[in-house]
Amino acid sequence: MTLFSGRRRQHASALVLTLTSALIGSSFALAPSASGNPAGTGLVISEVYGGGGNSGATYTHDFVELHNPTDAAIGLGGLSVQYRSATGTAEPTGVAPLRDVELPAGGHYLVSLAGSTANGAPLPVTADQSVTGVNLSASTGTVLLVDGTLAYNPGVEDQAGDPGLVDLVGFGGSNTYENAATATALRAPAPSNSSSVTRTAGRDSDDNSADFVIATGGALSPIACGDACQAPPPPPPPPATELAIVEIRGGCDKPCKRRHRHHARCGHCDLPDGWAERFLHPDPWHRRSPQDLAQGEPGSVRVR
User: How far apart are CA 56 and CA 80, in angstroms?
Assistant: First the structure.
């Protein structure tokens, strides 16, 4: 494509090429690490249900619900919901990478997990994604929201502030939890086949025992994002970088070769992969070096 053309002048200013450079941009917030944000400033795990399909189950499938309590959309791409048993010390055995969508401000995102249609009712809303290979315990375990899609071992006991975590919930008798303060009850309470642990109004004080309560009956009602969760917008156009011709040619000072009466081509020098250059000149018979062109020779540059 033709980027620009210069006008012939006796002492023209330096010829430059507008060269686009790579840039990754985004219009949404990134999920912070798992540190307390009682003001509601980060993505959190809002509900965990692990009794799906069991005898006496409320629903046929386990689920984990996420919540965005902030006033800006949060991108879920690159994050994952992970599960480890209550006594586990190794990497989680269940990993569910999240879809690359934006969770709107104030929104919820529902991940349906393993289950059985033998017992319980279907989830009351359509889940935003389904990962049947992750099977939660109904009463005790650890659910992690990880900044990454590979199995992540956070260690055991208090994990508040772990930079690899966005959030973590240890419930029942889990050996891993968030509890920055000394307390008798370190973990979220123990749910059952007919109940979940649910976060109180998006609160995250880095204390699972204080931030979660048991939900049963009508309170055990997950919320999904649905059509409100959309793929993130494309990044904005990258900014331009101006380079003189000689810079683009890696400092090469070999002369330009005349091709025919309407243009001369600079050859014999390597260009970056995928590049070609052509200099158009009113005077096609004059041999010029890239330095001459960079010092003000008029012309245009085609790049592909």
Answer: 29
CATH code, domain carrying 165: 2.60.40
CA dihedral of residues 234, 235, 239, 241 (deg, nearest 10): -90
pTM for the full predicted model: 0.69
Q: How far apart are CA 256 and CA 268, in angstroms?
A: 9
Look at the alpha carbons of 258, 263, 266, 271 in this order and tell me if their dihedral is positive or negative: negative
| Tokens standing for residue 28 | 């949404």
Tally of structural domains, the chain: 2
Higher pLDDT, 238 or 112: 112
Tell me the β-bridge partners of 82. 95, 144
Q: pLDDT value at position 172?
A: 93
Residues 74 and 221 in one domain: yes
Contact between 195 and 220 under an 8 Å Cβ cutoff? The reply is yes
Asked whether residue 10 falls in the same domain as residue 157, the answer is no
What six digits make up the tokens of 268? 């014999």
Tens-place pLDDT, residues 238-295: 775 555 555 555 555 555 444 444 444 444 444 444 444 444 344 333 444 444 444 4
Q: Calculate the average pLDDT of the chain.
A: 76
CA distance 201 to 277: 61
85 and 18 in a single domain? The answer is no
Q: Which domain holds residue 110?
A: 44-228
Residues 90 and 213 in one domain: yes
CA count, 13 A, side-chain hemisphere, 210 = 14
Which two tokens mark 114? 């393993």
Claim to verify: residue 162 and residue 95 sit in the same structural domain: yes
| Residue type for position 108 | H
